[in-house]
Amino acid sequence: MRLLRFCLLPVLVLPFMGAAKADGFELFQEKWKPVFRPEMREDKEHFQEKWKPVFRPEMLENKEGESFPVSMKQESPLLEPDLHVSHGGKASPRVAITLDACMGRTDQRILETLLSENIKATIFVTARWIRTNPDTVAILKSRPDLFEVENHGQNHIPAVDRPVSVYGIAAAGSPEAVAEEVNGGARAMLAAGFPAPRWFRGATAKYSPSSMTQIRALGYEIGGYSVNGDSGSLLGAAQAEKQFEKARDGDVVIAHINQPTHAAGEGVAAGLKALKARGVTFVLLKDAASPKALSAVPAN
Ligand SMILES: [Zn+2]
Predict the structure, then answer these.
(1) Domains, the chain, ordered by start
(2) Which residues in 256-284 are b (16+ Cβ under 10 Å) and which e?
């Protein structure tokens, strides 16, 4: 009997001991479970340190993550440089009008207003737009006093040297492709008989810091702006006019001259007239700043 008791003791007790032990461990785990709570800063840092999410552009999910908004990306955010011209003072405020001719046609409402009101404007043209607008090209060339024509690229591809999508448009993606977009635009301008461009504005007007350095090394100033006049030609007429009226001494206004079917163009034309009526002096980028000379326009 004693022997039996001795033999039974471990049989009877150990399971309970085991259970107690297991319970204790589970309790311990429950209590100290390393739960990842994103709201806790230290947890986040620890988690990131351990599971540092490497950005691999070749991964599909990362490719999808590349889409707008660009600022969510882990790489340096794209830049949209600000640009002003020298002030004219209260008596004669100076404003630079810059109009992009991305592709497509010419908005005659805007072109005719510039001509009839004698309003100076800097027009950024692409090789694509030059090909399909020979009549407007001739008009721009015939009035160098009124129009400065600058480089908006070859194929209207964002001048960003890594594979990103900006507003749904795939960027050039490499320094070589950025160079081709910039140089191709200049080649088309020279072939059409325009003077060598000194300013460059990429499609979407966004750049990576390194592509901005590259574009400057190619001999250009970056065509930034300070007032968005038509939000990519997507504003209504009244809204676009209102945007133009926001321009003050030293501002550089951006809008589009290639969307004749959009309502925005009507507002751009009205806004130009309103600025003139206010006594604004319209200046060209080449006169209002001193860009570096174009070092070399590569021959094709
Ligand atoms: Zn454009």
Answers:
(1) 15-72 (no CATH), 94-288 (3.20.20.370)
(2) bbbbeebbbbbbbbbbbbbbbeeebebbb
